[in-house]
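TL;DR need C-alpha cells for one chain.
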Amino acid sequence: MHVEHSQPAQMMCSQMMAGQVAEMKATSQALATNLAQMKATLPLINNVNERSRWQSNIAMWQAMADHFRHMAEHAEHMQATGMACGTMMGHSMEEKPATSAKPQ
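>> reply
TL;DR here they are.
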C-alpha cells in the first residue's frame, strides 16, 4: 500500500536535504583544502621519521576526504532524483505491514 506524503512534509524534507548536501559539500571542500596544505608542507620536512609520519597522515586523510566527497556526491544525487525523502535509513514510501508477533 502506498502512503501519500503531504506537500509541506515533502517540501520540508527537500529543504532539509538541500541544507545537508550543502553542508557536506562545504566540509568536503574544507577537507580537500587542508589536505592540500598538508601535501604542500611535506617537502619542507627534512627529518625522515617526521616525513614518514606526515606521509601516513596524508594517506589517511586522503582516504577520509575521498570517502566524504563520495558520500556528498551520493547525497546530492539522492536529492536530485527525489530518492532522499522517505527512502533513506531504511524508511520506505510504502507502508509496511504491522507485525503482531509479541515476545512470549
